[in-house]
Amino acid sequence: MASFLRQDQPAAPPAWFVSLAVIGALYVAPFLFRLVTHLSLCLRRPKDLRRRYGAWAVVTGPTSGIGRSFALELASQGMNLVLVDLNAANLREISDTIRSRHGVQTKTVVFDLSSVATPQGDKAMARLKEAIEGLEVGVLVNNAGVAKPGAMYLHEADADAWVRMIKVNLWAVTEVTAAVLPGMVERGRGAVVNMGSASSEAIPSFPLYTIYAATKRYVAQFSRSLYVEYRSKGIDVQCQAPFFVATGMVSRLSETSRLTLLLVAPTPDAYARAAVRWMGHGPPLCAPNLCHQLLWCLAAAVPDPVHDWLRLRANLHHRELFHTRSSTPS
Ligand SMILES: NC(=O)c1ccc[n+]([C@@H]2O[C@H](COP(=O)([O-])OP(=O)(O)OC[C@H]3O[C@@H](n4cnc5c(N)ncnc54)[C@H](OP(=O)(O)O)[C@@H]3O)[C@@H](O)[C@H]2O)c1
Fold first, then answer.
1. Whose CA is nearest to atom 9 of ligand 1?
2. CA of 248 to the centre of ligand 1 (A)
3. pTM over 0.70
4. Is there a domain that residue 35 lies in?
5. How many Cβ atoms from other residues are within 10 Å of residue 36's Cβ?
């Protein structure tokens, strides 16, 4: 009888199998968590941004790429817009497009953000402050950013190019945020979205774009601390850190990374739809595009030295491409 019972009992799985199953579950859990969070957000009714935050949004860099799509998406939801960029003609074009498509109000401010902390930059900042005075600015999107001079060793580019990048990508973000926050604090509501990058958050290094990634790390840390600082004042601060989005900024890479871009780079419109949905939701650091979220989980499973090797290889390819292009007479 006893031997009959013993035969019928299922054999306990071996320890190695249990260990592998636990490790597998630990790897899969973050994927599932992100998938469920994303799906639940898609099912939730989108926020009424005007009612939640206020009637106006300030968007920097709205004349092309992600900023343009972001501005159009906000306008489609009834937000009036203050558009900040360096080229007056491009600003007029996007402003007209927004007004004719969505019937909202717009204001434009010509501001070369790389001029912050100069007399010319101070004048532009004064124009921005004047433009938003008396407006119920509920949303700020610090989108403008530069990746030029592209893939290079640190010693290869002029110091001026790095300074320009640092000024646009981090210094201007800081000054514009400081200019917009007082009104939000006064009204006790608002949302700030700062464009970071997965290059500084999801992977351990981004060689040959070192300054770019470092400026984006600043943006992430800046946003994280502001999130804590201003949460109790009714202001949602978020850093959105996408992988590739198919804009002019990455178009030069399409020759070396065509397949990657095709698979993982959403159009700016698709990105902006997800980005606006994520405003005020979820963690202060996020990747609103589902494909990017899954990539983020995958990246976490790859050892750092493998990332370092792969990125250096890929970015050396970009450098070759940029050098060939810039040495080709136009
Ligand atoms: N595309 C990606 O794969 C990707 C990935 C991660 C993060 N991001 C971040 O997302 C943001 C938008 O990128 P994007 O791909 O849309 O870039 P983009 O197509 O090059 O657009 C950048 C925008 O910023 C404006 N801008 C540049 N320099 C400026 C300055 N000195 N003063 C005022 N405005 C300035 C540009 O104006 P002009 O057109 O007149 O130059 C343009 O409207 C950036 O912060 C970028 O770092 C992009």
1. 195
2. 8
3. yes
4. no
5. 10
- Number of domains forming the structure of the chain: 1
Q: Which domain holds residue 135?
A: 40-299+306-327
CB 238, CB 192: distance < 8 Å: yes
Q: From atom 25 of ligand 1, which residue's Cα is the shortest distance away?
A: 61
Q: What is the distance between the alpha carbons of residues 318 and 245, in angstroms, rounded to a whole number?
A: 17
* Chain-centre distance for alpha carbon 293: 12
* CA nearest neighbour of 189 among 137, 226, 228: 137
The mean-pLDDT minimum among 30-34, 235-239, 273-277 falls in: 30-34
4 domain-assigned:
no
Instruction: Give the pLDDT of residue 257.
Output: 65
Inside any domain, residue 1: no
Asked, for residue 320, whether it belongs to a domain, the answer is: yes
Tell whether ligand 1 has an atom less than 6 A from the beta carbon of residue 253: no
Q: Nearest Cα to 90, choosing from 109, 66, 114?
A: 109
For residue 116, report the distance from its CA to the centre of ligand 1, in Å: 17
**Can you tell me the distance from the alpha carbon of 158 to that of 321, in angstroms, rounded to the nearest whole number?**
19
Q: What is the DSSP letter of 3?
A: H
Tens of pLDDT, residues 259-292: 666 668 999 999 999 999 999 887 899 999 988 9
Pocket test for ligand 1, best of 86, 140, 215, 238 (most atoms within 8 A of CB): 86
Contacts of 200 (CB under 8 A, 6+ apart): 206, 213, 214, 216, 217, 220, 241
Segment among 1-15, 21-35, 133-147 with least mean pLDDT: 1-15
CB 292 within 8 A of CB 264: yes
The token pair at 97 is 């497009």
Q: How far is the CA of 324 from the centre of ligand 1 (A)?
A: 23
Pairing of strands 235-240, 56-60: unpaired
Query: CATH number of the domain that 95 lies in?
Result: 3.40.50.720
Q: Would you tell me how many other CB atoms lie within 10 Å of the CB of residue 225?
A: 12
Residue 216's DSSP bridge partners are none
